[in-house]
Write a structure and sequence with these properties.
Blueprint: E1 27-33, E2 47-48, E3 58-61, E4 64-65, E5 68-69, E6 71-77, H1 90-94, E7 98-101, E8 119-120, E9 126-127, H2 129-141, H3 148-157, E10 164-172, E11 178-185, H4 189-204, E12 208-214, E13 229-235, H5 236-239, H6 246-269, H7 277-284, H8 301-326, E14 337-341, E15 345-350, H9 360-389, E16 399-402, H10 410-420, H11 422-425, E17 429-432, H12 434-449, H13 457-466, H14 468-483, H15 492-503, H16 519-536, H17 541-547
Parallel strand pairs: 1-2
Antiparallel strand pairs: 1-6, 3-7, 4-5, 8-9, 10-11, 11-13, 12-13, 14-15, 16-17
Helix pairs in contact: 6-8, 8-9, 8-12, 9-12, 9-13, 12-16, 13-14, 13-16
Length: 555
């Protein structure tokens, strides 16, 4: 990315800058390029080549390579005719990043692009003011690319017969800002990668990050086993995630406050059999228009707090699991952005990696730790709640819920049926302890977050355990099941929309994105995905009637 020094941009559409701070007249510039030619008037912008330059020396903002002039900006005072004269020779030597270019013959430009008028290049392309300024702005604001001089130095000193023989180079990164070295591996991939990382640090310091990735579009595997590998290089500031900003902290706090509110609302809704009739009618009758007095809800806030604490505790425990797994591996995580939901209390939280992950094992371990921690606490609450539901002395703490709610999960419905019995679940309502609801909501939220899609915890573990191609297949299947309502029941649509908006993109590659994670990690991921399906799979009426889960009414 070219950086223009000693300049201050005054607007996007008219990029003017002063060449002398003590002058009162503003200066404008001409933009030159080998492929096009033309010139500026006082209010114009034309792509131009060196042939347009007059025989006199012209000031160009430095864009020069080893072959000569590439392109740049010609600075001239707005009060002068011709746009190039009345310049003091001494100024050029005192300003950085400026190059003098002489031209032998002045050439009449074939096209002029004044304000609002297009310019036609010799290639037949048409540019207007906005397009030219947009091109330059994209160049200035885009990610900084790898220096070609560094590429040559690294290619000569880093790679070789004993490590990796480079045969081809391709763009690397989201915007092609890096370099991907393709070639032939000359040793064990882990040993070669460690050696290359050490040598790169000696040569370039901490300027670049080196990635070992699978060779794109490779037809044959590596003769030593496994996929063929390539090595990508990106600038450190481009490849590493940025720090959490102040606004992100503010948004995270606001979302957490809203999540507290949605959790309390869930606790109040669980007392539906005790709420005033006008409140119940307003929230359940679609024809109800006039809102009731909300002060009637105040007496029910305090009884709702234990359930709210349980829901929030599960989500916080989930995030603590992530942080505990990341700390010993020196991986930084962002502050969690909790997602409020009135049905479950919370949809979980978005937690970003703020460090480049060293390998796929680290990705799997950190991503699994959160759902496992949250699910463990949720399962404990669910089990204790079911046991308390059997004790008569806990009747004062019980809440009445429709028995059909137990048809929302095959696994949890079967556990409830085995604990509470056929008679309890075959009535219109079931008396249960609030911990059952907290545990149920926590397990459902953990299962949703373990779905193998995008940047969810489940997507990260599948990408780390089985690769990015496997994640694509798992993701398409999951989207189809969510769209059909096979997984998640009535929550499938809002959850699918949330993922499409916020979490659809897969996680970025690790530094070592090739080395396998091992058999036991893959087994753990497979078992987890299987349990997720059992939790989110609803029970249809025929099966519910046969299993005795809920009261099925046939019309």
């Amino acid at each position: 990315m070219t950086t223009l020094t000693s300049s201050s941009f005054t607007s996007t559409l008219n990029l003017g800058f002063r060449i002398r701070p003590n002058r009162t007249d503003f200066t404008r510039f001409r933009h030159y390029d080998r492929r096009n030619y033309g010139y500026y008037d006082n209010n114009s912008c034309v792509l131009s080549s060196r042939d347009v330059l007059s025989k006199s020396t012209v000031r160009i903002a430095g864009l020069v390579d080893n072959k000569g002039f590439i392109g740049g900006f010609e600075c001239y005072a707005s009060g002068n005719d011709g746009g190039g004269g009345n310049r003091e020779d001494g100024d050029t030597a005192n300003e950085s990043n400026l190059t003098e270019v002489d031209s032998d013959k002045p050439v009449v430009p074939p096209g002029v692009m004044s304000s609002g008028q297009p310019t036609f290049s010799p290639d037949g392309l048409t540019y207007n003011n906005f397009q030219v300024d947009s091109f330059k702005l994209m160049e200035l604001l885009g990610p900084e690319k790898v220096d070609p001089v560094d590429v040559k130095l690294i290619k000569d000193k880093l790679f070789g017969y004993s490590t990796f023989w480079v045969t081809k180079e391709e763009p690397f990164g989201d915007f092609g800002e890096g370099i991907l070295f393709l070639g032939n591996l000359r040793g064990n991939r882990e040993d070669v990668f460690a050696k290359l990382q050490s040598q790169l640090a000696e040569i370039m310091g901490d300027k670049y990050n080196l990635f070992m990735v699978e060779e794109p579009n490779s037809e044959n595997p590596d003769p030593r086993g496994g996929p063929r590998v390539s090595f990508g290089m990106l600038r450190k500031e481009v490849s590493e995630p940025g720090p959490t900003t102040l606004w992100q902290y503010v948004i995270a706090v606001l979302l957490f406050v809203l999540t507290i509110g949605s959790s309390v609302e869930l606790g109040i809704a669980s007392q539906i059999n005790r709420l005033p009739p006008e409140i119940v009618k307003y929230f359940t009758d679609p024809d109800a228009i006039e809102p009731p007095d909300m002060q009637l809800l105040y007496p029910f806030v305090e009884p709702a707090l234990p359930l709210a604490y349980g829901v929030l505790g599960v989500q916080l425990f989930h995030e603590v699991g992530h942080f505990l797994a990341a700390f010993p591996k020196n991986v930084k995580l962002s502050i969690p952005f909790f997602i409020p939901n009135i049905t479950l209390g919370s949809f979980g939280a978005i937690t970003q990696f703020k460090s480049i992950l060293p390998d796929r094992k680290t990705k799997v371990d950190i991503s699994l730790a959160g759902p496992f921690a949250g699910a463990a606490l949720s399962l404990s609450m669910f089990a204790v709640g079911l046991l308390l539901s059997l004790k008569p002395e806990a009747a004062a703490d019980m809440v009445q819920v429709p028995s059909m709610l137990f048809q929302g999960s095959l696994l949890l419905g079967l556990i409830s049926r085995a604990t509470l019995g056929y008679t309890a679940l075959h009535g219109a309502t079931v008396s249960i302890h609030p911990l059952v609801i907290a545990g149920w909501c926590g397990l459902t939220t953990s299962a949703f977050n373990m779905l193998p899609i995008g940047c969810l915890d489940g997507g990260r573990v599948v990408q780390g355990a089985f690769g990015k191609d496997a994640l694509v297949g798992f993701g398409l299947t999951t989207y189809l099941l969510l769209g059909l309502g096979v997984l998640g029941g009535p929550l499938s649509l809002p959850w699918g929309l949330y993922v499409l908006i916020c979490q659809r993109s897969p996680e970025k590659p690790c530094l070592n994105d090739v080395t396998e994670v091992g058999t036991w990690r893959r087994t753990a991921v497979t078992v987890a995905i299987f349990l997720v399906v059992l939790i989110l799979l609803p029970v249809w009426d025929e099966l519910a009637e046969e299993l005795g889960i809920g009261l099925v009414t046939t019309f």
